[in-house]
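Appendix B. Chain record.
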Amino acid sequence: MKQSMTLIPTLREVPADADTKSHQLLLRAGFIRQNSSGVYSYLPLAKKVLHKIETIIREEMDNASAVELFMPALQQAELWQESGRWYSYGPELMRLKDRNERDFALGATHEEVITSIIRDEVKSYKRLPLALYQIQTKFRDEKRPRFGLLRGREFIMKDAYSFHSDFDSLDEVYQKMYNAYSAVFRRCGLNFRAVIADSGAMGGKDTHEFMVLSDIGEDTIAYSDTSDYAANIEMAPVTAEYTRKNEEQKELEKVLTENQKTIEEVSSYLNTAPENCIKSLVFKADDQYVLALVRGDFEINDIKLKNLLETSVVELASPAETKKIIGSEIGSIGPVHVEGDLEIVADYSIQSIVNGVCGANEDNYHFINVNPERDFTVSRYADLRFIEEGDASPDGNGVIKFAKGIEVGHVFKLGTRYSEAMNAAFLDENGRSQAMIMGCYGIGVSRTLAAVAEQFNDENGLVWPANLAPYQVHIIPVNMKDEAQKGLAEELYQELKASGIEVLMDDRQERPGVKFADSDLIGIPVRITVGKKAAEGIVEIKDRKNGEVIESDKAQIKEVISKLLTV
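C-alpha cells predicted for this chain:
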C-alpha cells in the first residue's frame, strides 16, 4: 500500500485525556479515533491488526471444533426477561424501544439469543455436543469509560457457547477452549496468566480469566513465586493456620473510645495490635442482612462471602442500614449482644483471638477481653478474607505475590443456568427430557489489540510482533524527487508485494525526519530506507525491535527480511 493512498493521521503531541501507553500510542500512531466517550473508530492500521487477531482466533476455534455464526446485536427484551437478566443485569445493559414501544437491548453478550436458537433447533442428545462462536460488536453502558479500548461502551468480542448432554462433555470442551485461548494469547506474543476467577453476573461455576500482566490492570492477580498457580485475588483461597494464644480469658469489659472508629485508631488508643481486634461489617445478601467478621489486620472478601451465602448479590450495607440494624454507627459495631436474628459469619482467623477488641454496638464504645463463642456465637466459620502477599500459595508451592492484570479472555462452565430458565431441553437416550448443559467463552478482540500495544512499545512508539503488525515492511525513500531513490523504492515495493510480503511505502512528499518518526511510531517490524546509495542498489534495513541497522544489496533484501521476520 502506498502511504499517500491510505489514512494514517499521526499526532506529535500526546492527547491530554489519554493516560495509558496503549491509548496514547494508538491515537498518536493513527490507529484509532474517539467518536464519543468509550466509542472509537478503527482506522485502516487498526483494522489490519484486528483482522490478524481474528484470524488467529478463528484458527484456534476451528482446532477446538467450534463453528462460526453471526447473531443480531439488537435483542428482544423477552429473551432477557426469560433468563431473568433484564431486571438483574444492571444499568450497563443498553436498553431501547422501537417505534411500537417494544423493549430491546443492544447485545452486551449473547447467552439468551444462542440459547433460544439451540432450544428451537436441537431436540436430541445425538446432536450434542455443539460449540458455536461469533466475532461481533458488543455494547455496555460503562459508567466510567477509560483507558481507550480497554474499557469502552462499544467493543469487539469473540463469544462462544457450547451445549452438552452431560458434564463430562462440558469438561472436555471447556479444556479445549482453555487450551485454545492459551494458544491465541501465546500467538499474540502476550505475557499472560490464566487465573481462577469468579463468574459474577454470568452465573455458573468453574471459570478462568486470561489476564495480560500490566501495571495499569484493574484486576489483582495472586500468583505463586515458584509454581504455575494463579488466581484473581477475589478467588484465591487462604490456607493459613492460625495459632490461638495460650492466655487465660479475662472478664468482658466495655470501655469509652470516643471518636476512635477505624481499626488503626482503636488499636492505637487501646494499646493493642490490629490482629487482636475484630472487624465487623454488615452486608446485604440479596434481601437478607448478615454480620461478617474478620481479624482487624485483614479485609473481608465479599466474593467469598457471596459464595458462602449462595446468594446472587452481596454488598456492604449503607451507614443508614447499619445504624437501623445494629443501633450504632459503623466503627462501633460488633458481634456481642447482637439483637434479632442477624446471622453472624466469621473468617477462620477469628478463632485465634483471645481477649480481643470489638465494637460495643453503642457509639464511642468498644468491648475489650472479647472471646469468640464465650461472648458471641458464630453460625459459620469459613475462609472469608483476601489473600495477602507472603501468604502460602494455595497449591502448597511457594508464597503468594501480586501483579496487576488486564482481562482479555474468560471461560465459564454455565451448567443449566440459562437452559433451565429458558426451557432449552433435549431428549436423552431413554427418551427423557433433560436441560442442556452449557459453557460460555469470551475474548475481548479490541481489548487484545490494546493489550498488545500496552506490552509492545518503546520510547519511540509501537513495536508490533511480526505476525500482528499491520504491515511487515515499511519502505521509505528519503527523497521522492530523486529518481534513483524513487525507482528503487518502487522496484522493491512491487517485488516484495509479489512475494507475499505486506508492504507499506511512504511515498509522501515529507521531510526524512517526519517519515522516520512516523515509521517508529507506527511500529512496523522492518524498515527499508532507500537513500544516497540507491543508484548502487544498496539500502539500509532497520529492525524495529532492537534498532539494529544493516546495509544490504537489493539482491539480498528478501533473505535479510525473511530472517528478521522469523526471529
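Further analysis of this model is presented in Appendix C.
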